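Lab notebook: predicted structure, single chain.

Context: the supervisor wants predicted structures on file for every construct in the current expression panel, including those that have not yet been purified. This is the next one on the list. No modifications to the sequence; it matches the entry in the shared construct table.
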Amino acid sequence: MTALDPMASVSLHAIVLRRRDLGETDRIVTLLSQESGKLDAVAKGARKPGSKSSGASELFTLSHIQLAEGRRLGIVTQWLVLDAFTRIRAELGLLARASYLCELTDKLVDDGEPCGEVYDLLRGALSLLEIGHGHPDTVVHAYELRLLEERGYAPALGCCVRCGKEWKGSPAAFSPMAGGLLCRACRGGVEATVMVRPATIQTMHTLKSGELTELGAMEWKPGVAAEVEACLNGCVRVRCERDIRSARFLEMVRGTEV
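Prediction complete. Output recorded below exactly as produced.
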């Protein structure tokens, strides 16, 4: 857990990534803030019925908060909810995806590390899910790729990760463990590779580099979505070194969607 820098009070814009109970009435919330990165703080009385901090301390709520210095953790003294993302909370598929984005962010961002870009990225992704901008998995996969890139873990999509041979539009193997594409000569003996078609590689390029607000109009060719999902699930598992619990829930929800 991260302690607040010694100061009387600080004003932050923050998204709730995680929460857990503290005592009978309080919560500890893990926040991703625009100004100070990721930190833990105490939300006093958040579990009391009717408490102002109860709704504000819910997962992925965006708030403007006032944080006071505590003995070990900062204490949230004021909450101004900027966006509760009510549509996301009302739809199971969106709820599963938003929960996954928050847990993934929590796993890949270190406490106290400056990460204003990640904050902006997560806020943008949640906003797109809220307004229903295209297929929600387009937002999820674009976020996965961009977060991996921001953290320095972006998979190689333009060349073979081993020999550097440029990818020229042919089918290729993708290895999450190796860190990206493998040409025919280099893929032998590499475990857990995913054979991907050219359209899948091009789609991942677009998801990583295209204007996020314009991706809603992107068309998914048959079979591409499953390959993109397999590639990125593998990358996430490698970088997080464990399964993400919300990813299993999301997979279950996807299985019920038509």
